Amino acid sequence: MNAPDAFTLPPTATRAAQLRAMLLSNQLEFLMEAHNGISARIVREAGFKGIWASGLTISAQFGVRDNNEASWTQVVDNLEFMADASDLPILLDGDTGYGNFNNMRRLVRKLEQRGIAGVCIEDKVFPKTNSFIGGERQPLADIDEFCGKIKAGKDSQADDDFSIVARVEALIAGWGMEEALRRAEAYHQAGADAILIHSKLKRADEIVQFAREWGNRCPLVIVPTKYYSTPTDVFREAGISLVIWANHLLRAATSAMQSVAAEIHRNETLINVEDRVATVDEIFRLQDADEYTQAEDRYLSAANAPRSAIVLAASRGKNLESVTTDRPKVMLPVAGKPLLRWLVDGFKKQNVNDITVVGGYRADAIDTAGITLAVNERHAETGELASLARVANAFTQDTVVSYGDLLFRSYIVRDLVESAADFTVVVDSTAAATANAANASVRDFAYCSAGDDRGLFGQQVLLEKISGDASDAGRTPNGRWIGLLGVRGDEGRAQLQRVFAALQTRADFDQLGMPELINALAADGAKIEVQYVHGHWRGVNDMEEFRRAADFAHGQTPFSGTAPETQGD
Ligand code: SPV
Ligand code: MG
């Protein structure tokens, strides 16, 4: 017998070649049962070199009997999921071949098309019954008819390495050793690549005797479900090629499901089972969910790419103490709904769906519908960057960072997320925005490479710095940053993460705000594109702005019946 070791295979060996090498190798090899995609993956991760696609367990996971109640095409469809989920060679338990020689021919062609490495057929009569249910009463196939089926299968395979294993049921059906050997020899002569000799005894005696008398004519395969207490070395010494652990994953899953279902039903709570079952993240891992995320980055057009927003909403609102005793500023009602809801709805309208709000003061009062809440516990002593640091996955995708007290016309966020620049800031160029009001509570004056030409020259304008000083170095600001920063693309996100990490090492990090981050980016050489607007937004920084916000908000409501306040020029 030609006997290459599996490790002599080239890494590119097909699955059929891998199974063949297992059958022919000098060492004892093992197949582990799987019955669907996830179990096939688990078998691979456990370190097995091949899979037994068991008729019993595939039927069972469909909830039907091992009597060919599932059609052969349903089995083949199931195999497709298994072959997709695991790159291991799969040997199908093909029962009787699902019919006569002709059904066998078609089966082999379909299995090869789905990347299955081989099929095992048993010498019983379609529709079969599991060997452990009244095996003695089961009729065996006519030897010649079964040999014809083997030949038909071998003649149909396109790949020489595809294996056909012939399973001898003579011992199961009580026909004795002589008949078992006679049948095995006939199947071997008909072209079977290996013989599966099945036994339902508690001891391996008849298997060992068969192997001795067989004398290595072709590889032997066994299924020690009933004689499970036999030491594996006995199989080695008997010269067995391949051991099939035939049903243990389905049985393990069944015990676990029965116990968990009963526990949850009894106690009407998940508390006792959570730590005993696989995490949802583990399921995602087995499904290769990360690959999907990476593929999204590669294949989804920018317009469809997932977009996220981080809303900084930790503060109580300095000049709003009288209305924020029981809630943070972002939960103040404006024209019938909280400020935060206007903001979240505005983002969602532009497909910015992954929204993280960093709360602080009275974070417990924040409505978390449609958002993820992070909390800056030290909000009273820290600034905006300390809040930003609370967002675990900040800047892992394209993101808009926003102040929490903004109302804006929807085109502002639309244009911001559509900007192709690594960084984009929204700057209001109206005269009111740049007025040097001594009592203005927010003084994010923007100094830019050029003033707002209102689209006349289509020039690209870059931000130079944001300053609290309305005549920084004697200059007049070009506008006011409204509190929206867009970050886009791998390079932009990487630069932002780097600059942010550097700021975190500063002793005064806790006091830093968004303008310091933007200025640090500019100092790092980042090109920060300016998106000029002319009004069309509101901040809520004091009682007066709070009162006026309602008029602005009404103007965002379709057919509200209220003439919108003049919101821009
Ligand atoms: C199977 O796994 O479906 C088998 C092996 O055919 S046995 O159940 O032992 O017959
Ligand atoms: Mg079976």
What does this structure look like?
- It is an enzyme of class 5 (isomerase).
- Residues 309-427 form the MobA-like NTP transferase domain.
- The termini are far apart.
- This protein has 569 residues and is of the alpha/beta class.
- The chain contains 19 helices and 21 strands.
- The model has no long low-confidence stretch (mean pLDDT 91).
- It is elongated.
- Helices cover 36% and strands 17% of the residues.
- It has three domains: 15-246, TIM Barrel (Alpha-Beta Barrel); 256-287, no CATH class; 308-555, Alpha-Beta Complex (Spore Coat Polysaccharide Biosynthesis Protein SpsA, Chain A).
- The strands form four sheets. Strands 9, 12, 13, 14, 16, 17, 18, 19 and 20 form a nine-stranded mixed beta sheet that branches. Strands 1-2-3-4-5-6-7-8 form an eight-stranded parallel β-barrel, surrounded by nine helices.
- It binds sulfopyruvate and magnesium ion (MG).
- Magnesium ion is lined by residues 54-56, 93.
